[in-house]
Write a structure and sequence with these properties.
The complex is a heterodimer of chains A (about 500) and B (about 190). With about 500 residues, chain A is α+β, with helices and mostly antiparallel strands. Helices cover about 25% and strands about 35% of the residues of chain A. Chain B folds into 2 domains: about 1-30; about 50-185, no CATH class. The chains are: A alpha+beta (about 500), B alpha+beta (about 190).
Chain lengths: ~500, ~190
Amino acid sequence: MTHVGCAAALLLVAAGISGQAPNPGGPLTVLSRDGRRPLPTTDVQGHQMVGLDDLATLFHLQIHEDLAARAVTATYKSQTIVLTPDQSLVSASGRLVSLPAPLTRQGRRWLVPVEFINRALAPIYDTPLELRAASRLVIVGDLRVPRIAVQYDESPASLRVTFEITPRATAVVTQDQGRLLVRVDADTLDASLPAAPTQQGLLTGIRAAEPDTIQMDLGPRFASYRASPPVSRGAAALLTVELLGTAPDASAAPAVPTSPTPATPLPVFSGETRPTIRTIVIDPGHGGEDTGVRGPGGALEKVVTLSVARRVKAVIESGLGMRVLLTHQNDNRIDGDSRAALANNNKADLFISIHANGSPRPDTRGGTIFTLGLDRVGEDARRQSQADREVIQIFGGGTRDFSLVEWELAQAAHLDGSHAFAGILDGKLRTTAGLPAVSLKRAPMRNLAGVNMPAVLIEIGYLSNPEEEQLLTSLEFQGRIATAVSEAVVAFRDYLEQGPQVPTPPSEPAAP
Amino acid sequence: MTRPRHFVLYAALGTVLAVALMVLFFVGPRWLTSTPPVTPGSAPTAADVRKIRARLFFVNADGTGLSTVEQEVTHGEGTVEQARHIIDAQLAAPAPPLASAIPPGTRLRTVYLTARGEAYIDVTSELQTNHPGGTTNEILTVYALVSALTSNLPAVTGVQILIDGKEVDTLAGHLDLRRPIEADAQWVPQQ
């Protein structure tokens, strides 16, 4: 980033800190690789409006007023937006777009609502444009500007500071004399930093130090800290820094946990980590007229998968005492959404889909474990769902995140757990089941996408391979697969119970 | 006597003139247009069809990925036309020892391209009905089509497969085809 850009970003973050209640009449900040420019706004009947002339300058638009046709056109390269005075509908390259307020004349200027930028201009612009109305920010191009939300959780002996970084970015915590620095891998930060609770004497303030760094000023009672590695929650990464205090001074006022102010929301309940596994859904691949692969000897995938799934259920239920549900008990066809719905509605803790593979080459062999792979489109949709997220007050106090996550993106929030289970299962399939080769893959799997818990799809071998066809149909091999899956479930339960988010303390004891 | 004679003469002349006009207006045009049109130049020969080198994708040796093969493909004017020729070439049965991941009998119906660079390939139902099943088979089929467009046409960012003009959930029960799929290098390992 250029010096201009850095300085701009500094100003931007500083604006973000005071941006808890942004001045509704203040300018937007247009941030690009070239730096930062203000975009003035005007309040018209409660709507934030920007001048077409300002947009023309910033985004190289040609504005043309056609009095005869009662139309104003904004042209960018070969694409044109047509606006009509006092109309909220505009045409952006032939597509009708609705705006919250009409094109309005003010003196010699034409004003449009700020939403014009992301609804009408962004679709025709050749560089990504993102309007963050809450942060009063317009991001031009592929700058990495994650949102940073900070929450405090106080206890008598410590203060936990949780940084929610959206979209996910890595972050490093370092101690530098009387301050802790959280450096995020980003071009700049869109930070919302509520006032730090200072009653405990652990923290005296929090602010942006550099474009990519947030500084926590440490108080007199600070002794040490623990920082957990960032964990994923949906599209966000959660970084938790726990500040630990010295024994309270007898003369000091007792540290009483304070009630969070409305500006300091309670920590959002994550619900991602589960203490144990109680319910597992096993999904036998295919069924009914959907036979799946047919082996050269005539074995059908749907028969093999149902047989293996029944064995897995029996081994886990009898050996581990967990509740195991099959997505279908008999040879019948069931669609992808119904498979996911059964697992979600039963609040299962783990979803395992069992399949047998097929390849054009008859000698292809080995097992494969699939987890869901999200492509750019999926990531965009997930990011959009995060942008639409709302925090609502819940009964009894506190808040809860509500996000309009698409049904098919439910799995996105559990990919860390899915990858962890896949890694454990990989080892068990090699050792206990004796599969000659197992590979771990990620792909946009239809039946995993809507599953709201850790989920994998196992290919237990190639039915198209004559030797593996014999293996897959043997009851002895199916028993080994069932045992391997059962052992993997036990190991995954231990992994969850020990806590996948166990902090790795990098803390160096600090002098108070 | 003279007047009646003149009258008959004028009536005969008028009738002849009317018949001549009718011939001119009703028969004349058809006769005129039946003349073969004059076309400048001669019809294009096979030698005149322009070709490009395009990357096509076939099953690799171990059967778990795709290998890239460069072949000549008919040149198309514009991205959509070129996409059509590339998919036609990808759907065609290759010469041995190349193995295709496309079920036999599959034909291209049409190709659409959105302003966002998402290509929609509409193919006939053989892609689904003749598919052998299995995740790897399905991955190879889908990514052969996806890679054929994304690797040759920079304007194409993703590919969605339609069958007989309709969106489908999956091809064989595994890959999510409800959205455009992007190229994925893990299925085209370096040779």
